[in-house]
Specification:
The protein is α/β, with parallel strands linked by helices. 39% of the residues lie in helices and 17% in strands. The protein has helices at 21-24, 37-46, 58-67, 96-99, 111-120, 134-142, 161-175, 184-196, 200-204, 208-215, 219-225, and strands at 8-13, 28-32, 51-54, 72-75, 103-107, 125-129, 148-152, 180-181, 235-237, 242-244. The strands form two sheets. Strands 8-1-7-2-6-9-10 form a seven-stranded mixed sheet, with helices on both faces. A three-stranded parallel sheet has the order 3-5-4, sandwiched between helices. Helix 6 crosses helix 7. It starts with 7 loop residues before the first strand and ends with a strand. 48% of the residues are buried.
């Protein structure tokens, strides 16, 4: 008797606080912090940065900078560039002229925490995704064998609509290639994206984090981060640094 084909599982994790060994260990993971860490990461690497080293705290970033004298510091707290840093967390700051062949030490409130959390929880592989590079990130992800997880960084341990809609887009792309098993949260992300994916700015204008960044004047960042499939790269975090695979 022929065995039934076993579909692999893909789960959506809604915040960095939900990253545990139970949810990601042994899985191939994509981390999303659309506004703005993973959008910044893929942009910097696409513009020629040599590597990005994500860390959780400002203190870690400053200490690592002292050990890597040729590195640059990037990041934010409360959406604003920490004092003494070379860059904030705006992807538009990471131009080719500014970052080509440079090492960037990056710390953000949510995104770098999610990346480090997935490494600590023993994910099999860790990629960086956003609307900007969704197709390329999914292409790399589905080439792997095993279960998958789409990790939304969220905002300060709370649900973030931008990341959840991005998870829905990634799920739609995955399911165009293969059948998968999903829990209710994944189906919600998919259905939400199918309903509102063509009107992202209008929908997200109601979201708290979007409003915070808008209030800080990052209108161009918001427009840029919601552009779909502009970059053909799939950065990978090996537990120490992020590079183009």
């Amino acid at each position: 008797m022929m065995e039934a084909f076993a579909m692999r599982r893909v789960d959506v994790i809604d915040t960095a606080a939900a990253i545990t060994r139970e949810t990601v260990e042994g899985r191939h993971v994509l981390v999303m912090d659309v506004l703005r860490a993973t959008s910044t990461i893929v942009t910097a690497l696409n513009n020629g940065a040599k590597r990005i080293i994500p860390v959780e705290t400002v203190e870690e970033a400053v200490a690592l900078k002292r050990r890597c004298a040729d590195s640059l510091l990037g990041g934010e707290r409360g959406g604003v560039r920490p004092e003494g840093f070379d860059f904030g967390n705006s992807p538009l700051e990471y131009s080719k002229d500014a970052v080509q062949n440079k090492t960037i030490v990056l710390t953000t409130t949510n995104g770098t925490r999610a990346l480090v959390g997935c490494q600590s929880a023993h994910a099999a592989t860790i990629g960086c995704a956003g609307f900007l590079n969704g197709k390329a990130a999914v292409r790399r992800l589905t080439a792997k064998t095993g279960d998958l997880a789409l990790v939304c960084a969220g905002t300060k341990d709370r649900f973030s609509l931008d990341d959840f809609l991005c998870a829905g887009m990634l799920l739609q792309q995955i399911m165009a290639e293969e059948e998968v098993q999903m829990a209710d949260l994944g189906w919600n992300a998919l259905l939400l994206y199918q309903a509102y994916g063509e009107s992202l700015p209008a929908v997200l204008d109601n979201a708290k984090h979007y409003q915070v960044l808008k209030g800080l004047g990052f209108h161009e960042d918001l427009e840029y981060c919601l552009m779909k499939n502009q970059l053909e790269i799939a950065p990978v975090f090996d537990g120490n640094e992020i590079r183009i695979d």
